Amino acid sequence: MTEQVTRATFDEVMVPNYAPASIIPVRGQGSRVWDTNDNEYIDFAGGIAVTALGHSHPKLVDVMREQADKFWHVANVMTNEPALRLAQKLTQKTFADKVFFCNSGGEANEAAFKLVRRYAFENFGPEKNEIISFFKSFHGRTLFTVSVGGQPKYKEGFEPTPQGISHCDYNNIEQLKALISDRTCAVVMEPIQGEGGIIPADIDFAKQVRELCDQHNALLVYDEVQSGVGRTGSLYAYQQLGVTPDVLTTAKALGNGFPVGAMLATDAAAKSLGFGTHGSTYGGNPMACSIAEAVLDIVDTPEVLNGVKSRHDMFVAGLEAINAKYSVFKEVRGMGLLIGAEVVDSYKGNAKAFVSAALEEGLLLLVAGPDVVRFAPSLIIPEADIKEGLARFEKAIEKVVKANAAA
Ligand SMILES: Cc1ncc(COP(=O)(O)O)c(C=O)c1O
């Protein structure tokens, strides 16, 4: 007999590293989600920028079923057709010549960070091992990725962590100039910081980072785990910046919720992960790769990418109209459908209050740090759902503002 589970079961049997909401979603369709009580929600969160084609996309469900009937797994002592096709598409559509598959963003970054060290080791010697990244950046939860990440709270209590890593302020080229040297093997950046508060890179800054890397024979790694796969209105955000990295990591939306990650690299860089240097049991499995191939086929079309731009405008206009009434945000910013609304000082540290109130109004939202409400919906969210979701958001804001005035 199946035992009844509720939100309380979480506290009984799960490690307390998460604090999930009170509701338990059980099914989704497009940009709508239903919970155990059949309450319906509009999804402006997309997991966390994951379900770029919404829930239960019919084409993805078909592809998944088809592949499930064929086979799910083959060890990496053999290759498989879906992995080869996906790698072919990723290399055709980007700067990259070579691909390594894994299962998550953190793993893709782990591979990238190992690659840049190994590349410098083989080409320049062991002293060239320093990695520079940016404060507020987020690259995953493994020991190496929390160390490269620019948020000390994620490292606390896990020391000793990998060494040879330093950080400077994002969009501050002078600080980077002061840090970079011939011992630097790589600079790692998100082209738009996600978890750090939805902060886009200045184009000039991004260009100068590339130049500094070239001057010091350092590789440039773009973490596009959150910004990739159409999220910003181009397949990858670097394609809008006019800056090409040497290594790029992608995950999240690549599988639309099915776990898959990839590290893309130039030929020159990829050579350094020679036979036996790195690996993953599940990386490149045929299930994940067949789904990711279908995701790419759908996302990388003018219809979807242009739709991201028009939906961005709808979101920004809607949020600004709401803000004109309530004055709760100091800035609405972002690229494509990765949008952040930073709260004014009177709500500083309390962006979560808006997200919790939104949940009560039937709207799934996210924060990006303590001060920013984050919107990362499906790239194909219907306009009617955007309108309805924004109306629910306005009700949530009204509640928070009233509660605040009464306090
Ligand atoms: C930019 C970035 N890199 C890496 C990660 C980690 O990805 P994962 O949770 O799949 O390991 C995330 C997740 O939020 C991210 O936003």
Keywords:
407 residues, alpha/beta, Aspartate Aminotransferase, domain 1, Aspartate Aminotransferase, domain 2, seven-stranded mixed beta sheet, four-stranded mixed beta sheet, 14 helices, globular, binds pyridoxal-5'-phosphate
Overview of the molecule:
Strand 13 and strand 14 (about 340-345) form a beta hairpin. The chain has two domains: about 5-55 and about 300-405, Aspartate Aminotransferase, domain 1 (Alpha-Beta Complex); about 70-300, Aspartate Aminotransferase, domain 2, CATH 3.40.640.10. The protein has about 400 residues and is of the alpha/beta class. It has helices spanning about 5-15, 45-50, 60-70, 80-95, 105-125, 145-150, 175-180, 205-215, 240, 265-270, 285-300, 300-325, 350-360, 385-405; strands at about 25-30, 30-35, 40-45, 100, 130-135, 165-170, 185-190, 190-195, 200, 220-225, 245-250, 260-265, 330-335, 340-345, 365, 365, 370-375. Helix 4 runs parallel beside helix 11, helix 12 (about 300-325) runs parallel beside helix 14 and helix 13 packs across helix 14. The strands form four sheets. A seven-stranded mixed beta sheet has the order 4-12-11-10-7-5-6, sandwiched between helices. It has a four-stranded mixed beta sheet with strand order 1-2-3-15. It has a four-stranded antiparallel beta sheet with strand order 13-14-17-16. The structure holds pyridoxal-5'-phosphate. Pyridoxal-5'-phosphate (PLP) binds near residues 138, 194 and 251.
